[in-house]
Design brief:
By secondary structure, the chain is mainly alpha-helical. The protein contains 36 helices and nine strands. Helix content is 66%, strand content 5%.
């Protein structure tokens, strides 16, 4: 393909990424840019050109040896839910923006340690960025079938590097606060992750199923090649150890690589996004590796005996079959893999460079005397120049050093260098005794051994015949051979360097930490890191500080970097959070920590501490005092937590008591109304009996016919009075559990018809039609007398409220599961839906406003409810288009009755 055409395609592609990044920054709150899938896909920045091209080269030359680089991350990913969440929480509450800040803050906010971590990261990552540029250059010349030029301005990679430097410096420095989320970069990286995976799977399918006839075909043809069996076995113990150490170095890399820390920690918006990442990220790695082996060995079959770079098989195969479109797509996938790593790594490195080297050691004195606008501009410019310079520096490493080595070799060297941070990093979050001196000496010794066993041999040249350093060792001492240190000769160079460097690094870290106790500040942060869950909400309370500080002095420092408005807003938040008087002159430890956190995102943890220390007077605190204060802080936090819980419980109890009180008041009113109603109902028959009795007593000459009528009235009213008293006593027995029922197997249809018979004359007089829809025999388990009482009561109510003309009552019986459901519906005025829950209350009729004057005692439905519930059934009101519909259930079989 023509070079100009491919360059135009790259420009369009880069323009597209610019657009996506710009769009995401403008639309930062929409779900497309702020969700767990974007976060999880952005973590695939781990898959660089090394993954895209280098894995194929390793699989082609060494068989399964490419797998350990992916085994390590997959092994540790399930632990992310604990470890990564802890790291994110620590970083969020302390406004940490880089791994250098993370480590240096834990060990007493050490400026020197932060600088060491930064130098180690620069040493490991700049060659790694150079590796990506090397991949872009080599693949560009393969696609365009051109030769690389020794003249810089004829090298396409020069212009790609400049374009990437401009892109990263613009979008990576939009915020002065480095801990702010860069939605544009994250979204662009997530999109690139999708594209590189799609393009890689596409070439995999093409090679496996179009060039060859599936996996079996590739395996069958590849097995005929020389050394196929030897390359595709794990081997013995020695090879197993090599695999183990390669898995370990990749396990460390997933936490410690600056770009991974940037995307997984700094750019994390929600801790819950980790739940998606722990399954989506391993799935991504699995999908990426599905076709590595087929492409690698398919390439070995096609190019057997030809001198080609196995790293580029994914491009050479479609090009071999003159498939230009697929060749360009694969190239764009590799380009995506490379530039996402370059951009994110340069952003994270520039933050470390500015916050841990340039500002604390050179610019801090000037910044603290400038205005906020000038300071912000200077900080942004420092980072922009840093990003641009880092990418250009990596370009020169690529031009003058990285040309001689494979993608994998450079990548693994970077991994080993970064792994020197592991003891200090993991000790920071799990071991309280870890000290600043232990971290410093451990990292330095580990880096020196790494330099001796790996960096120097590669810098000199492994095959350099003029140097005897690699073959004979330093000063020709056999035990000091860099690849066989102390006689260890069965490990490959990378596992060998990792073993010795981490061994001495870890031993030094533990030995020095145990031998030399850290100062009070180290122990303070150790507690805050290890027990972050206790301090995450009010972490300022756990900060130990003693001395004299004035609020106005701290505010002046904040204004120089945050501005008047933001400083005022921050101080208001602090005062409200800790209930501090806004006019308080003296500042306490909480405000000192709060101010340091506000500055950390702008200038780093070390510089923030230096600035705040310049305006306060701190007194030294002994370690026992620190432990005492921390213990008191823990007790205070525990007490506050218990008080909060108790307060919540009291609020809940108070709410429940208020509801209970309201219910009691309502019941009391209902009771009074009920008593009024019952009194009225009792007085009515008693008055009638007394009146009739007085007439009979006073008038001996009353006609016989009239006498009989009065006597009949006395009998009727006595019966009415007796029924009312029976109902009251009946309800009281049910409510106190003294009432007994005697259930047996009965035909419910017959019981309903038996209940209707005494009411037939009343039904006829009211011109009401009654229909029983189920005429079949339906058996249920119940006390027949009691259910007759229920049905009679429901029918009486239905008759009472049916319209004067065209009254209709429908009784429906049907089976549902292990119960028989019976409904009684009329076409009267119905029941208000607000009364559905209280209609079965014994006070219901007295408080119900739907009817004029209550007819009856208002106890009928309350008794019905008690009867049905004693049968283990339910009774309720159902919504109806017209009229009222009351439904009850009875069991088909015997359910043990627990009531006595």
């Amino acid at each position: 393909m023509n070079s100009v055409v491919l360059l135009l395609i790259l420009l369009v592609y880069l323009g597209f990424l610019f657009f996506i990044a710009h769009w995401a920054e403008k639309k930062e709150n929409i779900k497309w840019t702020n969700n767990s899938y974007i976060y999880s896909l952005s973590l695939a920045v781990y898959c660089t050109a090394w993954t895209y091209y280098g894995s194929i080269g390793v699989a082609a030359n060494s068989g399964l040896s490419y797998l350990p680089i992916y085994i390590g991350p997959i092994i540790i990913i399930p632990a992310w839910i604990i470890i990564l969440k802890k790291i994110i929480r620590i970083s969020r509450v302390n406004k940490i923006s880089s791994i250098a800040d993370f480590i240096s803050l834990r060990y007493g906010n050490s400026r020197f340690l932060g600088a060491i971590v930064t130098v180690v990261c620069l040493s490991g990552i700049l060659p790694y960025i150079a590796l990506q540029l090397k991949a872009i250059s080599e693949t560009f010349h393969i696609v365009t079938k051109t030769n690389s030029s020794s003249y810089i301005f004829d090298d396409t990679t020069t212009y790609v590097a400049i374009a990437l430097a401009l892109f990263a410096s613009y979008y990576g420095t939009r915020y002065v606060d480095a801990s702010e989320k860069r939605k544009g970069i994250v979204t662009a990286v997530a999109l690139e992750s999708i594209l590189k995976l799609v393009f890689f799977i596409t070439i995999g399918i093409y090679v496996t199923f179009f060039v060859f006839d599936g996996y079996d075909d590739i395996y069958e043809k590849a097995s005929l090649l020389e050394n196929f069996k030897e390359k595709n076995t794990i081997g013995g113990l020695e090879q197993g150890l090599n695999w183990f150490f390669l898995s370990m170095v990749s396990l460390f890399a997933i936490f410690l690589l600056p770009r991974q820390f940037q995307m997984s920690v700094v750019e994390n918006n929600r801790e819950r996004h980790i739940k998606t990442a722990i399954w989506l990220f391993p799935l991504y790695l699995l999908l990426f590796n599905l076709f590595v082996y087929p492409i690698a060995w398919g390439g070995n079959v096609l190019f057997d005996g030809k001198n080609v770079n196995a790293d580029t098989y994914s491009l050479l195969i479609p090009q071999f079959f003159d498939n230009k479109l697929l060749t360009v797509l694969v190239f764009l996938g590799g380009f995506s893999a490379a530039i996402s790593m370059i951009v994110v790594s340069s952003i994270s490195l520039s933050t470390m460079l500015s916050n841990n080297l340039l500002i604390p050691y050179t610019f801090l004195g000037k910044l603290k005397n400038e205005e906020q606008i000038i300071n912000n501009k200077k900080i942004v410019n420092i980072r922009k120049i840093g990003i641009f310079s880092l990418i250009i520096a990596a370009y020169f490493i690529y031009r003058f050093f990285a040309l001689d080595y494979s993608l994998v070799s450079i990548g693994l060297i970077s991994f080993v260098v970064i792994a020197q941070l592991a003891p200090a990093f993991f000790g920071a979050i799990f071991w309280r005794r870890g000290s600043r001196l232990g971290a410093i000496y451990g990292i330095l010794i580990g880096f020196i051994i790494c330099l001796y066993t790996l960096l120097l041999p590669y810098a000199i040249g492994i095959t350099n015949n003029e140097s005897s350093f690699v073959s004979d060792g330093f000063m020709k001492i056999g035990l000091l051979k860099p690849f066989q240190l102390f006689g260890l000769d069965y490990l490959q160079p990378v596992p060998h360097a990792l073993f010795w460097s981490l061994l001495f690094n870890t031993l030094t870290y533990f030995a020095v930490s145990v031998s030399f106790k850290g100062n009070y500040r180290e122990r303070n942060y150790a507690e805050m890191y290890v027990d972050i869950d206790k301090y995450s909400t009010n972490h300022e309370n756990a900060f130990v500080w003693k001395g004299t500080a004035y609020t106005r002095d701290i505010e002046k420092v904040l204004v120089r970097f945050l501005g008047e408005e933001r400083t005022k807003r921050a101080m208001n938040i602090f005062n409200v959070k800790y209930n501090v008087d806004k006019d308080q002159e003296l500042a306490d430890a909480r405000l000192v920590k709060f101010a340091e956190n506000l500055l950390t995102g702008h200038i780093g943890t070390a510089s923030a501490r230096i600035l705040i220390s310049s305006v306060v007077k701190e007194e030294k605190i002994t370690l026992p005092e620190v432990l005492k204060i921390l213990e008191e802080s823990k007790e205070n936090i525990t007490i506050n937590k218990k008080l909060t819980e108790t307060s919540n419980q009291l609020q809940k109890i108070t709410s429940e008591l208020q509801k209970a009180n309201e219910t009691l008041v309502r019941k009391d009113v209902q009771k009074d109304e009920f008593l009024d109603t019952v009194t009225h109902e009792l007085r009515t028959p008693i008055t009638a009996i007394r009146a009739a009795s007085e007439i009979l007593h006073d008038d001996d000459e009353i006609p016989e016919e009239l006498r009989k009528q009065f006597l009949q009235n006395i009998i009727s009213e006595s019966d009415r009075l007796n029924r009312l008293i029976d109902k009251i006593l009946d309800l009281e027995k049910f409510e106190t559990g003294k009432q007994t029922i005697h259930p047996s197997q009965n035909n419910l249809i017959a019981t309903i018809e038996h209940s209707i018979e005494p009411l037939n004359q009343l039904i006829k007089n009211r011109n009401i039609s009654v229909y029983v829809e189920s005429k079949d025999t339906v058996f249920a388990y119940y006390d027949e007398d009691r259910i007759v009482q229920v049905v009679t009561n429901l029918l009486s109510n239905a008759i009472k409220f049916c319209p004067e003309t065209d009254g209709l009552i429908t009784i429906q019986v049907k089976k549902k599961d292990n119960f028989i459901e019976t409904s009684v519906q009329d076409n009267g005025k119905g029941i208000n839906t607000n009364d559905f829950d209280v209609i079965f209350d014994k006070f219901y009729q007295a408080s119900n406003q739907n009817f004029k004057k209550p007819v009856g005692s208002g106890l009928g439905l309350a008794i019905c409810k008690q009867i049905i519930e004693h049968h283990k059934g339910k009774i309720w009101v159902e919504s109806s288009v017209k009229g009222a519909c009351i439904v009850f259930t009875l069991p088909i079989k015997n359910i043990e009755n627990k009531e006595s």
